[in-house]
Amino acid sequence: MNDTDQIQAAVAAPSGPEAAPSVTQTRARFARRVAAGVGSAALLLAMATDALAVAGRHLGVTFLGAIEIFEACIVVAATSAIVIATIDGTHARVRILLEQVGERAAGVLDRAADLVSAIIFVVLIAGSIWLASDLWNGHEVTEVLNLPMRWMRAFWIGGALLVATIFIGNAMRRRA
Fold first, then answer.
1. What is the mean pLDDT of the chain?
2. Is the confidence at residue 49, as pLDDT, over 80?
3. For 60, left (φ over 0), alpha (ψ -120 to 50), or beta?
4. For residue 72, what are the CA distances in angstroms to 43, 66, 125, 127?
5. Mind spelling out the 3-state secondary structure of the chain?
6. How far apart are CA 149 and CA 24, in angstroms?
7. Where is 18: in which H helix or E strand?
8. pLDDT tens, 116-153?
9. Can you give the pTM of this predicted structure?
10. How far is Cα 73 from Cα 121, in angstroms, rounded to an integer?
11. 3-state secondary structure of 152
12. 114 and 168 in contact (C-beta within 8 Å)?
């Protein structure tokens, strides 16, 4: 059973003294619930904002800044979705090669895939931090509502850090 199967089993496992989850499983379940709650709230707010904007257009009332609110919500929802996909191990992976090699080689390739994924997220984090540090005191805001962009970037960086950490943890726990 690989780490993805263990996390999925932990999320679906019954509670009780006979099936006490490990600390890692409890943390994964908690992180998944938090990410799902935050992402769901962001999607609901985005949907409500867009619905009000459309209704307003039909009634001749302009809802200024609806697109800006929608965009901010999508940053939160997309980051939450990436975190959930990483926790659940449901990122898209091509398994054609893994099916053709032995179990040991498949384990090595899975570990390598986790490490490469972590590296990709570290590069994205580095670029995001660089961009955020250059613009942090620039008071970069949206055009209509003056929503500060720095907090959207900070949320993305935090989510990407969590994803990179999960990938590194998965790579360390996998058997080669």
1. 87
2. yes
3. left
4. 10, 10, 19, 20
5. CCHHHHHHHHHHCCCCHHHCCCHHHHHHHHHHHHHHHHHHHHHHHHHHHHHHHHHHHHHCCCCCCHHHHHHHHHHHHHHHHHHHHHHHCCCCCCCHHHHHCCHHHHHHHHHHHHHHHHHHHHHHHHHHHHHHHHHHHHCCECCCCCCEHHHHHHHHHHHHHHHHHHHHHHHHHCCC
6. 33
7. none
8. 999 999 999 999 999 999 998 888 898 999 999 999 99
9. 0.80
10. 21
11. helix
12. yes
pLDDT in tens, 33-44: 999 999 999 999
The owner of tokens 């009000």 is: 52
pLDDT mean over 62-86: 95
pLDDT score for 92: 80
In angstroms, the CA 157 to CA 146 distance is 21
Residue with tokens 């961009």: 131
CB-CB contact of 115 with 171 (8 Å): yes
- Give the DSSP letter string of 73-115: HHHHHHHHHHHHHHHHT-S----HHHHHS-HHHHHHHHHHHHH
Give the whole-number percent of the chain exceeding pLDDT 90: 63
Radius of gyration of the chain (CA): 20
Decide: residue 86, CB within 10 A, 0-12 exposed, 13-18 middle, 19+ buried.
Answer: buried
How far is Cα 138 from Cα 126, in angstroms, rounded to an integer? 19
